Amino acid sequence: MRSKRQAAHQQLGLALAKFAPARAADLARELGLSVPTLHRLLQETTEPVLAAGRARRTRYALRRALRGHLAPFPIRAIDEAGQPHELTELSPIQPQGCHADFGGSDWPLEDDDQTPDGWWDGLPYPLYDIRPQGYLGRQLAHRFQDTLAVSPNPDTWSDDDILWVLSRVGSDLPGNLIVGDAAFQAWQKARLDPPLILKADDIERMYVKAAEEAISLGLAGSSAAGEFPKFTALRDLRDSNTPHVIVKFSGADDSTTVQRWSDLLVAEHLALQTASALPGVQTPPGRILQHQGRTFLEVERFDRHGLFGRSPVVTLETVNAALLGHAPSAWDTLAQGLAEKRLLAPEAVTAIRYITWFGRLISNSDMHLGNLAFRPEDGRLTLCPIYDMLPMAYAPLPGGELPRVTFDPAMPLPREHGVWVAACHAAIAYWQTVADDTRISSMFRRIASDNGTELQRRLALVAP
């Protein structure tokens, strides 16, 4: 017959598995014990108990094995000089969630009495933007689906799937975090034996080859679903901050659909150049290359510094979910919410207002929350360079047909007058630049010219 002590230990394990993370007082109440008796049980148990928190905020949970792996996952950050630093460690817990204390790091945190001191209902929010996603994420999932026993579609992965993939093959993902020893060892190996940096003479051959390899995978969701296929590369760039680039590319045939995607790549390049003149707005350096019928847009990565240095990055989508909890809305609206919580400087809010209006005035219909990013610094956020800024309203429809777009740019409210006027001047200059660029089709150049004329007409009404 079991002793009362054995029964108490069993009940403790059941309570931890059900209610964790839990305070000692709550566990004692659930078990009908005094707090001192509960503490003795916790010291005696052979269960893998995790205790974290300071003083009365201490909570307890049972560690949870991830695919047979019970040990915590170390999380390391790579700095701009390419040096690794131990940041924290992540422990999955029962029944769900994890513990990973980001306190004292650059990452802004909510000090919520319900989940203080590193307890998370899912994964820590700094990990969500480094998870494989989009076209590059599908490439990675396609490559490792059998090895890591995950779905080929990363959008369907659970938090456990994400954590497992990050810990095994996450050595070169967005931002500067590396989760787990296996991924870190792969990073160390790459540093000891760095990959080849492409010289100018190699670019055409290697970019065409990389595009053909990406297309040969047959991944769903490329340009037909409003997303450019892409690959990453290392290339020798004089006077650049980093050789790391992301390369988007068009198809190689002469169809009207492929021509429009080519137009939009050039248009994106020109939009980034124009937007860099807006107050407080930075854009990454980039260039257009055209080889063997394809148009390539090469953009330098702002989360990379030199060959090995990195910096953290987080999107507005993740920041909103973790720190604001607002319904999705316009970039400038959510930026104001971040400023009210003292997470974002007023100058950054102003810059986001400029870029929000600029995007609207150049028909960017794809300004979702994942297309604006920040860098965490000292518990606050700084605005990253702008990316994916282009007139996506003119992107081909899923069946390949070109859309019929009525250009009807929004007019400002009185309080937005000054920002709108400045953004409108930039948008007029942008449409004129597009209209003058001979790399763009005559059809889209006419559209650009007409749009610039329409904006001039509206500007005259607002600022005669």
UniProtKB/TrEMBL annotation:
Keyword Transferase: yes
Coiled-coil segments: none
Pfam families (alphabetical): HipA_C
Origin superkingdom: Bacteria
Signal peptide (from-to): none
InterPro entries the record matches: HipA-like_C, HipA_Ser/Thr_kinase
Cellular component aspect of the GO annotation: cytosol
HipA-like C-terminal domain mapped to chain residues: 222-415
Entry keywords, A to Z: Kinase, Transferase
GO terms, molecular function: protein serine/threonine kinase activity
Family affiliation: Belongs to the HipA Ser/Thr kinase family.
Protein name: Phosphatidylinositol kinase
